[in-house]
Write a structure and sequence with these properties.
Mean pLDDT: 92
Radius of gyration: 52 Å
Number of strands: 0
Largest sheet: none
Number of helices: 2
Order of helices and strands: HH
Number of domains: 1
Oligomer: single chain
Helix content: over 70%
Strand content: under 5%
Length: 131
C-alpha cells in the first residue's frame, strides 16, 4: 500500500473530476445526438408512412376506375352479343321465310327445263325465275 501526500491526492482527484466532466459532457452530446437521430428517424418514418398511404390510396382509386371501365366494357360487349344473337335469329327467320318461295321457283324452273322445242325459250318469266 502506497501512501500519497495531500497534493498528489488533490491533483489525482482533480484529474479524475476533469475526466468525469469530459465523459459527462460527451455523454450529454451523445444522448442529444441519439435523440436527434431518433427524432429524424421517426419523422422519416411518418413521411414514408404518409407517402405509402397516399400511393396506396391512389392505386386503389386506379383499380376502382379500371374495374368500373372493365364492367362498362363488359356490359357493352354483352349488349353487342345480345344484338348479334337477335340478328342471327332474324337472319335465320328470313332464310326460313325464303325457303318456300325458293322451292317454288326451283320447281318451276325445273319444270320449264323439260318443255318441248319452241316452248323451251328464255322469256321474261324465265329471267325472273333465274334472277
Amino acid at each position: 500500500m502506497t501512501l500519497c501526500n495531500r497534493d498528489a491526492w488533490v491533483c489525482s482527484t482533480q484529474d479524475n473530476l476533469s475526466v468525469a466532466q469530459r465523459e459527462e459532457q460527451a455523454s450529454v452530446e451523445l444522448r442529444l445526438l441519439v435523440e436527434r437521430v431518433l427524432q429524424e428517424t421517426a419523422e422519416d418514418l411518418r413521411v414514408q408512412c404518409s407517402n405509402v398511404d397516399q400511393a396506396f390510396s391512389q392505386r386503389c382509386l386506379q383499380l376502382t376506375e379500371a374495374k368500373t371501365q372493365l364492367e362498362l366494357h363488359l356490359t357493352q360487349i354483352l349488349d353487342q352479343i345480345g344484338a348479334q344473337e337477335r340478328n342471327m335469329v332474324s337472319l335465320q327467320k328470313a332464310l326460313y321465310d325464303k325457303e318456300a318461295p325458293l322451292r317454288v321457283a326451283q320447281s318451276r324452273l325445273h319444270q320449264r327445263s323439260h318443255r318441248p322445242h319452241m316452248e323451251l325459250c328464255r322469256d321474261n318469266p324465265q329471267f325472273s325465275l333465274v334472277g
